[in-house]
Design brief:
A 5-stranded mixed β-sheet has the order 1-2-7-5-6. Strand 5, helix 3 and strand 6 form a beta-alpha-beta unit. It has 155 residues and is an alpha+beta fold. The radius of gyration is 15 Å and the shape is globular. The protein starts with a helix and ends with a strand. Helix 2 crosses helix 3. The protein is built from 3 helices and 7 strands, in the order αββββαβαββ. It has a single domain, classed as 60s Ribosomal Protein L30, Chain: A (2-Layer Sandwich), CATH 3.30.1330.40.
Length: 155
């Protein structure tokens, strides 16, 4: 029987990507007590990098939101694995941190991060509301446009 969050994903017509495997010497998540720390996820779908380039040059704010949402989908896919397959065990999204590969004059990093923030509220309701950081960076791995990491409270 599908859980509440899986039912919500179906209602929203959201498909999750396959969780990626680490590309270096790290793990996809670490649990400490009830807190679950998820490694930053890139704007990719099942290993295919999307939104390669900089916000303010190759990509608009709206496209950046889509890239951040894609990072959020990857976070939820890893979150499902870390929660033993049961997203109903997620009590709260505590914090998201977003890194936006952007030109020096691009100032809409927080608007870009709304793509991930809105996704977590849509999927988890009030439990998806979180503290947040959004910063512009000079470069990200593989030149993707956005990377998002998260901290979650899990049963």
């Amino acid at each position: 029987m599908a859980g509440r969050i899986d039912t919500r994903l179906k209602e929203l017509d959201i498909e999750l990507p396959t969780p990626s495997t680490p590309g270096a010497n790290y793990v996809p998540f670490v649990r400490s007590g009830t807190l679950l720390f998820l490694t930053g996820q890139l704007s990719q779908w099942n290993g295919e990098r999307r939104f390669v380039g900089k916000l303010g040059r190759e990509w608009s704010v709206e496209q950046g939101r889509e890239a951040a949402r894609l990072c959020g989908l990857n976070l939820i896919a890893h979150l499902r694995t870390a929660a033993g397959g049961d997203l109903d065990r997620v009590r709260r999204c505590v914090r998201l941190a977003g890194y936006v590969n952007s030109t020096p004059d691009f100032l809409a990093q927080s608007q870009v991060m709304n793509g991930a923030s809105d996704l977590f509220v849509d999927v988890f309701g009030d439990a998806g509301r979180h503290a947040r950081m959004a910063v512009g960076v000079a470069a990200l791995p593989y030149d993707v446009a956005v990377e998002v990491e998260g901290v979650f409270d899990v049963e």
